Structure formats: C-alpha cells, structure tokens
Amino acid sequence: MPHAMSDSATPPAKPMHFIRQIIAEDMKTGRWGGRVHTRFPPEPNGYLHVGHAKSIILNYGMAKEFGGKFNLRFDDTNPAKEEQEYVDAIIEDVRWLGADFEDRLFYASDYFQQMYEWALVLIDKGKAYVDDLTADQIREYRGTLTEPGRPSPYRDRSPAENRDLFERMQAGEFPDGSRVLRAKIDMASPNLNLRDPVMYRILRVPHHRQGRKWNVYPMYDWAHGNEDSIEGITHSLCTLEFENHRPLYDWFLDQLGIHHPQQIEFAKLVLSYTVLSKRKLRELVFGRYVSGWDDPRMPTIAGMRRRGYTPEALWALVEEVGVTKVESVIDVGRLENAVRNHLNRVAPRVMGVLRPLKLTIENWPEGHVEMLECVNNPEDPSAGTRQVPFSGTLYIEQEDFMENPPKKFFRLSPGAEVRLRYAYFVKCTGVVKDASGKVIEVKGTYDPATRGGDAPDGRKVKGTLHWVSAAHAIDAEVRLFDRLFSHPEPEKPPKDAPPDWTYLHNLNPSSLEVVRAKLEPSVASAKPGDRMQFERLGYFCVDKDSTPDLLVFNRTVTLKDTWAKEQAKGAA
Ligand code: ATP
Ligand code: MG
Fold first, then answer.
1. Number of domains in the chain
2. Nearest atom (ligand 1) to Cα of 268
3. How many whole angstroms from 282 Cα to the centroid of ligand 1?
4. Model pTM?
5. Paired strand residues for 412
6. Could you say which DSSP state residue 141 is in?
7. What is the CATH number of the domain that holds 538?
8. Between β-strands 180-183 and 69-74, what pairing exists: parallel, antiparallel or unpaired?
9. 364 and 487 inside one domain
10. Is residue 224 within 6 Å of ligand 1 at its C-beta?
11. Cα 187 → chain centroid
12. What is the CATH number of the domain that holds 148?
C-alpha cells in the first residue's frame, strides 16, 4: 500500500479523528459483529478529483486499518450522463491511489431489479404512490422551509392502482416525465427531504450497462441507501450535504426492514486556488480552458498523476488535514508541500537547464571530456551516484548570470567566481553579445585544483550553479505550471461583480509556460511517469506526450528554499 511505503518500518501512530473513533468503538462493542465494510460510490459522469481522493483514502483507509473490506461501486443510476470513459478512468484512479477493492467492483444498475421489487413492497404497504403532478407542480406543492407542503390529489390512490400504474410506467406505456413514484411520508415534515420524495421517474432511454431494459430509473435518494444495504456496508461515509438526507435513508431502510448501515457525514475537502465541482471541471474541459481531464493543472487525480504527484503525497495530505465536521478551505500549498516532502525522499537528482546560456571555459583542454561523479539522492545514500560528462562548452541557466548584478547576487557575473555543482570553480572573464546587446555567451576560466567543487586553499564561493555539457546534453520540452486560478477562492464573486461574472474570470492567463531545456544525458532513457528532481529547479515528471525524438516534462512542483540552502552551502 502506498502509505506503508514510508522509509521507516513502523509508521507513526495515526492521529485520532471522529470516524476512526466511531469505528474503533464499534469494533470494541462488536456492533457489526467485528465487521468493517466501506465503499466509494462515484457517479461516472466525470473524472475524480482531489476531494474524491480524500473520500477514497478515508473509506479504504478505515477498512484496511480495521481489517475490513472496501467496495468500489458505480452509482450509475442516471442513464443520461454516464459514460464508459469515466468508468475506466475512475477504476484506474482508485487503483493508482492504492485503494484495493479486490473483486468487489459493483454497479448500482445491477441492483435495479432488486430496487424495483422493493418499490413494489412499499407500494403494497401503502408507503409509495404514483403521482401525476408535473415536476413544477410537485415543487410548488412541496412548500418551503417556513410553509408546510400540500398533499398531491393522487396521494391516496390505492396500493392496487399504484402497483398497476408503476408496472405500466416500467412497461413504457407513459411518456417521459408524465408520472413519478413517490414515497408517502409526511408533507408537513420540517425536513423537506421527507415531503414525499420522488423515488422513480420515467426515462425511456437506454442505460450504458442495462440497455433498453428499464423505462423507470431510481432517484439518488431512493437508490443510495439501498445500494449500501445490499452490499452489507457497515459505515457509510459521505459528505455533510447528505446529513439532511439521512432521515430519509433511515426511513426507507426501516420500512423495508433490511440491513441498515450507519451513515456518517464528514466535511468535504476544499482547496484554495482550486475548483472541485464536477460541473465546473466539465466546463473547463469541454470549454477547452485546459487540454483535457488529465491536464496537469487540473485538480483531477488523472491530472495530478500526470503532473507527477504521488499517491503517498495524497495519503499524507489526507492524514494531515484530518477528518472533521467543519468545512474549511485548505491551503493548496499544503498539497504541494506533501508532494515535495515525498519526492524529496524518493526522486533521483539530475541536472537540467531550463533557459540555456552558453558558458565557454577558455582554459579547458580542447576536446577534453571528464566524467564527474554526482550524487543521485542526498536523502537516500542507497540511490548511489552517476557519472556526468563535463567539457569546455557548457550551458548554465540564463538567470544565473548578470552582467551588472545588484549586491548580494552570488551567481555568475564578470569577475565573479562560482562553483559548478560536482565540478569546478569557474570565474567569469567576459561575455559575447549579439547585435542587440544581449548576452549570448559567457566566458570563464576554471581552476583545475577545485575538482569535485572544493578549493584546497580553503577559498570559498557563495554560489553553486547547475550546468550541462553542451555536446552531451539532450533537448527536452518542459512545461512549467502556475496555479490554474489566480484567486484563492476562485468561485467567490468580487463585490462589484458584473452580472455575467463567473469563476472563469479568475482563470490565471499564464498558468502554462513551455520552454526548451537542455538536460544531462543520463535522462535520455526516462519513460513517461518517471519523476526526478532537476537540481535547484524543482521536481519534474516525464509526460505521456514524449516521443522517441523529444522528451516532454511537466514541472510537478518547485523546490522551496533550495536557493537559500545552496547559498548556505556555498558560504559554509
Ligand atoms: P456530483 O454529485 O456533482 O456529481 P460529487 O463530487 O458529489 O459530484 P460523486 O461521484 O457523487 O460526485 O462523489 C463520490 C463520492 O465522493 C461521494 O461520496 C462524495 O461525498 C465524495 N466527495 C465528493 N467531493 C468531495 C470532496 N470535495 N471531499 C470529500 N469527498 C468528496
Ligand atoms: Mg454526488
């Protein structure tokens, strides 16, 4: 399991949260006969996002921790919106997170027959009726929070008449939307969900798994609790907006006298600079504001995976953020930090130059190449070292050179000496400019006595630069990302918002920058999905757009404080 892949053999004790506490207590009292059975029930109408990751990790995590089971169930009760593409993507994402559902992959649509029979049970008990009111009328009759609802004139149809009508609804005799089946509960209930909710609607459309078998389709509120019951779920974990629906689920289960899971609500994950509503994610994709569901700037699991985020990082974030009943915006920086922390431990280091500037070492022997030993991961000695070629023509980062530097610029400038990482001290002796006066080449000399990066005379330099040998470097396309939205709460309209304002106004116009980079030759064999640190620049992941001729990288996340650290090392 990903979260068990930490570098210490005994993971730290998990912090208590209220769901962990409830389950621990149930295990102690034997409430479910020692069983824990959870599930993740996505609707296959879009790709999963980081909020779903929280739900998956919580559900699977609880099952695993208490020796229980975890199901993946597609809530595919709405035939109009669902597609196989989403089913496949969701399975891939759940597996990638390490949430093992073994052979327990279920579809709510497989329970349609059972649910239909249960609807007949309620009809026969006088607890459900066929209503001929239109959708608008039903809304109008429902009343408001301050006003009780009114009973439909069809509310007191006999069970026999209801059964006949319902069977004919399913037989396809009536047009879409002409009738519904409603639970007969309480039109005056202070909880609007209990004012005779709709259980079935007529939709004479094919279903992606059931074909043309059904002409009535169950509503979410009727179906959801039944699905959990059928699967023997013990702890039905869901987000807070379903708290008000719980009395309804309870009512259905009690009327039917079937297995009754305990529903427990928790606060959604909400991240700053991010939108998570599926409707909006769809809009970003279909409006072509991003390149697709797996655009690395998207908060989708597919996007995060492509960007180079790891399951371990998501597990760490979920554990760190915890599970509560209070919704709060989590700083997206915490997610980025979790990614950084994990990659720092596992990602091999390489050198690459994002915006190359030629550096010629004038006293380097013509044609000479030296192989220098570079550490693969200072956080992990077992990662070993590699040999990187060094020569008299190098590339350094454009921003590591300034012709007229301000004070405290410790990188390269005329007359200044720096360390080239793992290589030599180099002193700048001059520049070459193009006709416009732009520096296109830096010249320097190296000190052969400083091989490996230390001066035997104890001389110090303050800057350490990364570099690649020009003749050996490989080209790569590198995609640098900024946040997709430029506002921490992108969905919040500004005070003077014009009437046509939408969250799309907060899209960051420069969330993607593409550069042509030069990378050390060891990277040539990298494959899509490989992650590495480019020293001083961040963590990068090979993109699926790579071809045999050109590697494409995504910057997963920048390095925090690296520059400060390097400076300290240089000054030490
Ligand atoms: P919609 O209902 O608009 O399609 P949804 O995000 O609720 O969107 P579902 O497929 O119903 O989509 O979600 C599956 C599960 O994920 C649900 O149990 C839901 O509670 C949970 N979930 C959704 N968003 C979040 C979130 N931001 N944080 C935690 N859990 C979430
Ligand atoms: Mg939902």
1. 3
2. 28
3. 14
4. 0.93
5. 401
6. H
7. 2.40.240.10
8. unpaired
9. yes
10. no
11. 41
12. 3.90.800.10
